[in-house]
Design brief:
Layout lengths: L1 E3 L7 E3 L9 E10 L6 E8 L2 E10 L6 E5 L6 E3 L10 E9 L5 H4 E5 L2 E2 L3 E3 L13 E3 L7 E2 L2 E9 L5 H9 L11 E5 L9 E2 L5 E2 L7 E3 L6 E2 L2 E2 L12 H11 L11
Parallel strand pairs: 4-13
Antiparallel strand pairs: 1-14, 1-18, 2-12, 2-17, 3-8, 3-14, 4-5, 4-12, 5-6, 6-7, 7-11, 8-9, 9-10, 14-15, 15-16, 19-20
Length: 262
């Protein structure tokens, strides 16, 4: 399953956390763009019209491409190529930031379906991010852009710069890798209308603007072993919150996720 935004009011937001602007992080998720509009958001950690703090991932430039941009007053960014993320098709996306990298291509990587893309850079990606104290927004560009008319599925945030092999593993698996438990900050499965997630530092899901997205079909045919995330909504085989919690406990040393509806 997935969560779908109408492109105008439906967003997901999570309380501020130091991890959102850390020197190392990875966000990995399935993305389906229903419509493409330049400056509409996919994710952001920003303070309204203040473009000097945080970052944003948004549709930008020509059709079917987007950028990840630092918001520190100069606005350096990395941009995918035209056509990398077409509308009407599911793709797995991962954004990996490593402030310790020597050059732009080492500090910022964007993956599509497990493959690192060639990015066009503007300016020099800084080693550190300017901390924003605002919420983390999904499906929304919170520094002057818009709400993306998109679907998201199985969103994960790690306070670590994942390798290419780890990105591929997360694409292929429903649950986050056990070896990454200590760096898992947020997991939003998006496979249940109530499963909108909580960050694992015990900061609750929050909604400071807009309304929550609606449940929708997820990536067709994407399988995680014996679990397919696009089963019919009323299927008895669909993993609900209670089953997911129990599975996570069996396969992980990390406490069960705090999720609404469990």
């Amino acid at each position: 399953m997935a969560l779908e935004s109408n492109g105008t009011t439906q967003v997901l937001q999570y309380a501020d956390n130091a991890a959102w602007d850390a020197a190392n992080f990875t966000m990995a998720f399935w993305l389906y763009q229903i419509a493409w509009t330049s400056t509409d958001g996919i994710a952001s950690h920003a303070n309204g019209s203040d473009t000097t703090k945080g970052w944003r991932l948004m549709q930008f430039g020509a059709t079917d491409q987007f950028i990840w941009q630092q918001l520190n007053g100069t606005g350096q960014y990395g941009q995918t190529a035209v056509g990398d993320f077409p509308t009407g098709a599911w793709a797995h996306c991962a954004v990996v930031f490593d402030g310790g990298g020597a050059a732009n291509a080492d500090r910022l990587k964007i993956y599509k379906n497990g493959t690192s893309l060639t990015l066009t850079f503007s300016g020099t990606i800084a080693a550190t991010l300017v901390d924003s104290t605002n919420v983390l927004s999904l499906m929304y560009e919170a520094s002057g852009g818009g709400v993306g008319n998109i679907r998201l599925a199985n969103f994960k945030w790690f306070s670590a710069s994942l390798t290419a092999a780890q990105v591929k593993w997360e694409m292929d698996h429903y649950q986050p890798a056990k070896e990454l438990n200590s760096s898992l900050v947020l997991w939003v499965p998006c496979d249940n209308a109530n499963a909108i997630g909580e960050d694992l530092s015990d900061n609750a899901f929050t909604q400071s603007s807009g309304t929550t997205p609606t449940i929708a079909d997820g990536p067709v045919g994407v399988s995680y072993g014996d679990d397919v995330i696009n089963r019919p909504r009323n299927s008895r085989r669909m993993i609900d919150g209670r089953q997911r919690r129990n599975r996570f406990r069996r396969h992980s040393s990390k406490p069960a996720l705090y999720q609404t509806g469990w």
